[in-house]
Write a structure and sequence with these properties.
Elements (H helix, E strand, L loop, with lengths): L4 H8 L1 H20 L34 H36 L2 H14 L4 H12 L3 H28 L2 H8 L4 H38 L10 H8 L7 H29 L1 H11 L6
Helix pairs in contact: 1-10, 2-3, 2-10, 3-4, 3-6, 3-8, 4-6, 5-6, 6-8, 8-9, 8-10, 9-10
Length: 290
C-alpha cells in the first residue's frame, strides 16, 4: 500500500524528512519511556555522581548519580504530553474564534476581532507565569496558557482565510444545496484553510516545548517530582563551568525538538498546499530566451 501523496512529498524534502524523523523519534522515546528506561530516573547513587559518557551510563550522570539518558527519556513523556495537550487546546480555541469571527453576524465578528487583538498583545509565557502565580506551577498551566495564547494566533491567521474561502463559488453552491453553516465549515472551509492552520499548529507545539522547558527552569512548570528537560537543565547549569558536557544533552534535545517541529510545519504546508508549490515552481523556472 502506497503512502499518501502529501506524505511522499513531505519525505522528499530535506527539512520535511528531518522534522518527521526527529518528531517520530521523540514520540517513540516517550512511548518507550512509559514502560522502560535504562535506570530509574529518580534513583540517586552518590558513588556514581558525575560519571562521563560510558557504559552503562551512555550520557553520563548528574550531581546525585542519576542517569542523564534516563532523565531525558522520561522528560520526553512530559514534552509530548504538553505539546499534544497545548495543540489540542489551541486547535479548539483557534477554530472556535476563527469561525465566530468569520461566519457570524457583523457585530459579533467585530467583537471577536477586537478580543483577538487584545489577547494577542499578551506574550504566552507572561500569561503562563501570571496563572502560575495564582494557581501554582503545573503542566496543566503550561498547556492551557500556550493553548489559549496560540489559539488566538491561529484564529487571527485563519479568520481572513475562512472569509476568503467563504466567498468562493463552490461555497455559495453548497449553501444553495441546503448545507448548514456547520456542515459547510467541516466539509469545505476547514479543509481549504488546513495548510495555514497546520503551520500555526506546529509553531504552537514548538512554543509549548519551549514554554514547558522555560517555565520548569524558572520553577513555574513541572513539579520537582516530574521528569522535565527544563528542570534537568536548571539542575545542571549550576555546574556548567565544571561539567559542561552534562548541560549539552538536555539543551541539545530541546533545540532539536523545537527546530524539528518548526521545519515539519513549513514542509507540511508546502506538501499540502498546491498553490504554494506552483508559485515556487514558477519562481525557480528560468525564462525562455528568445
Amino acid at each position: 500500500m502506497m503512502a499518501p501523496l502529501w506524505l511522499r512529498r513531505l519525505w522528499a524534502t530535506p527539512t520535511g524528512a528531518f522534522g518527521l524523523v526527529v518528531v517520530a523519534l521523540i514520540g517513540l522515546t516517550a512511548l518507550v519511556a512509559l514502560f522502560w528506561t535504562p535506570f530509574d530516573p529518580q534513583s540517586s547513587t552518590i558513588s556514581d555522581r558525575w560519571l562521563g559518557p560510558s557504559w552503562p551510563h551512555l550520557l553520563g550522570t548528574d550531581d546525585t548519580g542519576r542517569d542523564i539518558l534516563s532523565l531525558i527519556m522520561a522528560g520526553a513523556r512530559t514534552t509530548v504530553f504538553v505539546s499534544i495537550g497545548a495543540g489540542v487546546v489551541a486547535t479548539v480555541v483557534g477554530i472556535a474564534l476563527a469561525a465566530l469571527g468569520a461566519l457570524t453576524a457583523r457585530w459579533l465578528r467585530e467583537t471577536i476581532a477586537v478580543l483577538v487583538d487584545i489577547l494577542i498583545a499578551f506574550p504566552v509565557l507572561l500569561i503562563a507565569m501570571m496563572i502560575s502565580s495564582v494557581w501554582g506551577g503545573s503542566l496543566w498551566v503550561v498547556i492551557w496558557a500556550v493553548g489559549i495564547g496560540f489559539g488566538v494566533n491561529i484564529a487571527r491567521v485563519t479568520r481572513p482565510e475562512l472569509r476568503r474561502v467563504q466567498q468562493s463559488d463552490f461555497i455559495l453552491a453548497a449553501k444553495a444545496s441546503g448545507l448548514t453553516p456547520a456542515q459547510s465549515l467541516l466539509r469545505h472551509l476547514l479543509p481549504n484553510v488546513a495548510p495555514v492552520f497546520i503551520v500555526q499548529l506546529s509553531w504552537s507545539m514548538a512554543v509549548a516545548v519551549l514554554a514547558e522547558a522555560g517555565l520548569s527552569y524558572l520553577g513555574f512548570g513541572a513539579s520537582v517530582v516530574e521528569p522535565s528537560w527544563g528542570l534537568l537543565l536548571a539542575d545542571l547549569q549550576r555546574y556548567i563551568g565544571v561539567h559542561p558536557l552534562s548541560v549539552i544533552w538536555p539543551g541539545l534535545t530541546i533545540t532539536l525538538t523545537v527546530l524539528a517541529l518548526n521545519l515539519l510545519g513549513d514542509a507540511l504546508r508546502e506538501a499540502t498546499d498546491p498553490t504554494l508549490r506552483h508559485r515556487r515552481a514558477e519562481t525557480h523556472t528560468p525564462g525562455v530566451v528568445a
